[in-house]
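Handoff note, outgoing to incoming analyst
You'll be picking up this chain. Sequence as last confirmed:
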Amino acid sequence: MKVIVLAFFVACLAVLAHGATDAEKEKLKKFHDECQADPATHVDEELLKKSRNGEHVEGIGKFSLCLSKKNRVSKGERRRRQR
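Most recent structure output, in case you need it:
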């Protein structure tokens, strides 16, 4: 079940990145690079590519969680600035 949720999450990120503005794409790339730089959350790029293409991939959970947390924090900051 966790794998399905993670695959869905990665697929959603890919869709969001496709329809995102250049600024949003840059931010997502920055988050990706930060998560990849951390040895605890690093994942082989080939695994991420397979996941984006809809293949069943295990071992990307920590990376996905890192990316999700960074994205949520960013969105929370944006909401606070809009108030």
